[in-house]
Amino acid sequence: MAAAMPLALLVLLLLGRKGWCLAEPPRDSLREELVITPLPSGDVAATFQFRTRWDSELQREGGLSVLLKADRLFHTSYHSQAVHIRPVCRNARCTSISWELRQTLSVVFDAFITGQGKKDWSLFRMFSRTLTEPCPLASESRVYVDITNYNQDNETLEVNPPPTTTYQDVILGTRKIYAIYDLLDTAMINNSRNLNIQLKWKRPPENEAPPVPFLHAQRYVSGYGLQKGELSTLLYNTHPYRAFPVLLLDTVPWYLRLYVHTLTITSKGKENKPSYIHYQPAQDRLQPHLLEMLIQLPANSVTKVSIQFERALLKWTEYTPDPNHGFYVSPSVLSALVPSVVAAKPVDWEESPLFNSLFPVSDGSNYFVRLYTEPLLVNLPTPDFSMPYNVICLTCTVVAVCYGSFYNLLTRTFHIEEPRTGGLAKRLANLIRRARGVPPL
Amino acid sequence: MGLLSDPVRRRALARLVLRLNAPLWALPVAWLERTMRSVGLEVYTQSFSRKLPFPDETHERYMVSGTNVYGILRAPRAASTESLVLTVPCGSDSTNSQAVGLLLALAAHFRGQIYWAKDIIFLVTEHDLLGTEAWLEAYHDVNVTGMQSSPLQGRAGAIQAAVALELSSDVVTSLDVAVEGLNGQLPNLDLLNLFQTFCQKGGLLCTLQGKLQPQDWTSLDGPLQGLQTLLLMVLRQASGRPHGSHGLFLRYRVEALTLRGINSFRQYKYDLVAVGKALEGMFRKLNHLLERLHQSFFLYLLPALSRFVSIGLYMPAAGFLLLVLGLKALELWMQLHEAEVGLEEPGGAPGPSVPLPPSQGVGLASLVAPLLISQAMGLALYVLPVLGQHVATQYFPVAEAEAVVLTLLAIYAAGLALPHNTHRVVSTQAPDRGWMALKLVALIYLALQLGCIALTNFSLGFLLATTMVPAAALAKPHGPRTLYAALLVLTSPAATLLGSLFLWRELQEAPLSLAEGWQLFLAALAQGVLEHHTYGALLFPLLSLGLYPCWLLFWNVLFWK
Question: Could you tell me which of A275, A282, A224, A226 has the C-alpha nearest to residue A250?
Answer without folding.
Answer: A282
